[in-house]
Specification:
The chain has 167 residues and is of the alpha/beta class. The protein is built from eight helices and five strands. Strands 2-3-1-4-5 form a five-stranded parallel β-sheet. Helix 3 crosses helix 4 and helix 6 crosses helix 7. It is globular. The chain starts with a strand and ends with a helix. It binds shikimate-3-phosphate. Shikimate-3-phosphate (S3P) binds next to helix 1.
């Protein structure tokens, strides 16, 4: 059974697109950030603030590697999840990966609430976004499908994913 895995930066629209895609394809939706929050009983900012990013990444890895895969899923991943080699290999192995790509300017516009984006809170947000894209894009581009999301609605993006993957 192949799952659909959405990857990309914070603010790319993975969660919103994931919700629509799960409705369109009658697949279950798993949002890895939600699983992490449930497992820790705390929101993402709280975890990173109190225990640090390294701890957060460890929980993220454990949570992703233990997703219940018995039913076909749409999996919306946190932006940094695939940077872990083991997580990346696992997600590539269980289905089709889709990179929802957005320009730094678009991501900047979509990440204006600092309380829900702990990694973008300090310093110049646009510079941080650019730096993260530079560091991560090679990995993101190692996806089965790349969808450009600038100036497109979540519904359009979800429909394109359906078409591209023949869902
Ligand atoms: C992160 C992205 C966030 C969340 C955490 C770290 C990242 O998820 O996992 O704040 O490193 O890019 P979203 O991509 O769903 O915002």
């Amino acid at each position: 059974m192949e799952h659909v895995v959405l990857v990309g930066m914070m603010g790319a629209g993975k969660t919103t697109v994931g919700k629509i895609l799960s409705r369109l394809t009658t697949r279950g939706l798993v949002d890895t950030d939600v699983l992490i929050e449930r497992s820790e009983g705390m929101d993402i900012s709280g975890i990173i603030d109190s225990k640090g990013e390294e701890y957060f990444r460890m929980v993220e890895r454990n949570v992703v590697l233990s997703i219940d895969l018995r039913a076909p899923l749409v999996i919306a991943t946190g932006g940094g999840a695939v940077m872990d080699d083991e997580v990346h290999a696992f997600l590539k192995n269980i289905g089709k990966t889709v990179y929802i790509r957005a320009s730094a300017g678009t991501l900047y516009g979509r990440t204006s609430n600092p309380s829900t984006r702990p990694l973008l809170r300090d310093g110049d947000r646009l510079e941080t976004i650019k730096r993260l894209i530079e560091k991560r894009e090679k990995r993101y581009l190692d996806s089965d499908v790349v969808i450009e999301s600038d100036d497109r609605s979540p519904l359009e993006i979800a429909n394109e994913i359906v078409r591209e993957l023949g869902l």
